[in-house]
Amino acid sequence: MNDKQHYTKLIKTEAKRLGFLSCGISKAEFLETEAPRLEKWLNNNMNGEMRYMENHFDKRLDPTKLVEGSKSVISLLLNYFPSETQNSESFKLSKYAYGTDYHFVIKDKLKSLLQFIQEGIGEVSGRAFVDSAPVLDKAWAAKSGLGWIGKHSNLLTQQVGSFYFIAELIIDLELDYDTPTTNHCGTCTACIDACPTEAIVEPYVVDGSKCISYLTIELKENIPTEFKDKMDDWMFGCDVCQDVCPWNRFSKPHSEPLFNPHPELLDMSKKDWEEITEDTFRKVFKKSAVKRTKFSGLTRNIDFLKD
Questions:
Q1: What EC number(s) are associated with this protein in UniProt (predicted)?
Q2: Is 88 marked within a binding site?
Q3: Residue 219 assigned ligand-binding role
Q4: Residue pLDDT, tens place only, 72-100
């Protein structure tokens, strides 16, 4: 076993020990096939008010512009599929937001992995990324063989579906690289057919400005009236395209205590949500990703659903 293979094995073993679902590695280089797709998507204004998607175009496509001297992109998946979900008579919250904000949970694990690499292998420089920087997470995960991009534009894996977070370490160490897997969507159009706002405009293309996740989280202005009665009771995010995907029948509950919801969350009814106070909001969502939309954003969404 040469050094590259040895280091790769060490990193993947440690990633598993830290609780990651899987780890794939690809060469840090320009994402040639993604460039025209991203450009077309932006030109068609499918990013809505997410103007930040237009920034750092080159960095999004070339990790060596993001991390100087980088050689490898280590992609990691972390399961968040819950063992229990909200009661059926409730306004809905995307499953990823049930527990502690994933940015904190994953950042800590990534820091531990980078420290392990530096202590066990030597002088290695790199940066950790959790969807808050111009990195095309899904493209890198697919490139490193962790799954394929489904027709709903999420990463899909045969054994575990798609209820997981994607994160990266971009480092200046050459490793043994994985190869992409094949697409297993076949003729299935479940996600396209089920999308309440018809945001999946064609297979593999999502108009972000129509997506319920965008409307309830990213959009700061009022939700356009054209989406009235099309929101399917989602008050923060949306899981419809994932819930109907046949591959998610293989999803297994996560084992990360920090992703467990606040005890009150799952039992709250529509009436409870309609009457939510800022104090309750702060208590239930103390360290949650839901804080991103703030109390005012969540109540705006609830008001839009109930009117």
A1: 1.17.99.6
A2: no
A3: no
A4: 999 999 999 999 999 999 999 999 999 99
